[in-house]
Design brief:
Blueprint lengths: L1 H18 L12 E6 L1 H4 L16 H12 L6 E4 L7 H6 L1 H4 L7 E5 L2 H5 L4 H18 L4 E5 L13 H22 L2 E3 L1 H8 L5 H4 L8 H18 L4
Parallel strand pairs: 1-2, 1-3, 3-4, 4-5
Length: 236
């Protein structure tokens, strides 16, 4: 009797957890969702088929875990091809293999913080990023694009000359906003979320080195990603 009761309670808890996830219109049956970018997306992901590590340990994993469980019948395919240290120039070199050939239905990109730290000229950043998006849309005119803006907080070495550093990051954010408008992409504005979070807890709670989020920060990212995508493409 106790075993039966425990099973009922367990199922009820499981059912409630699934109910907490609202549908996302772009997550159609069999949809392939690709996360692309730098180390923040990479999340120390595995480089083999081991499903325990394949999505890394960050916002992409949180999103995939939630919706993969809540809507298992949809058979959603979440993929992560973020690579630590990447700029748009590095992304360009692997774009065909790691993006176009994977034929995503939803393509989420977060790149720019390394372009700023490595002094990739702003106009080159925009031109290359633009070309990558154009190529992706040509390959799949129905592709849903999600562009995340780079972000920062004054933590660690980023405390030094922070205003200057922040202004440079802002310039990259402006580029991403222009490209999102040009391609009708969902624009995920991470910076305001992190700024607001600092009113609740210190910056170090959310981003440990000024660039890379903590687990708490990744949860903020996942929540904002979901909110933005749902608002951009609401369910019918």
């Amino acid at each position: 009797m106790k075993t039966i009761l425990f099973s009922i309670l367990l199922f009820a808890a499981f059912f409630r957890s699934l109910q907490s996830a609202e549908p996302v219109a772009v997550f159609a049956p069999g949809a392939r969702i690709l996360f692309q970018g730098d180390s923040i997306t990479d999340g120390n992901r595995g480089r083999n088929a081991d499903p325990n590590h394949i999505l890394g340990h960050g916002y992409a994993f949180i999103i995939a875990a939630k919706y993969g469980a809540a809507f298992a019948a949809l058979n959603l395919d979440f993929m992560n091809r973020g690579v630590s240290g990447n700029t748009v120039l590095a992304l360009q070199k692997r774009w065909a293999k790691d993006t176009i050939e994977l034929k995503p239905d939803v393509l989420s990109i977060l790149v720019g913080i390394n372009d700023h730290s490595h002094d990739v000229p702003l106009d080159q950043y925009e031109q290359v990023y633009d070309a990558l998006l154009a190529e992706a849309m040509t390959a799949n005119p129905k592709l849903r694009l999600v562009l995340g803006e780079p972000f920062t907080l004054p933590v660690g070495k980023r405390k030094e000359n922070y205003e200057t550093w922040r202004a440079g990051v802002q310039a990259r954010q402006d580029v991403v906003a222009r490209l999102a408008a040009k391609y009708g992409a969902a624009l995920v504005r991470f910076q305001p979320v992190f700024d607001a979070a600092c009113k609740v807890a210190p910056a170090e709670h959310w981003i440990w080195d000024g660039v890379h989020p903590t687990y708490s920060g990744h949860q903020l990212m996942a929540d904002e990603w979901e909110r933005t995508v749902r608002a951009k493409w609401p369910s019918p």
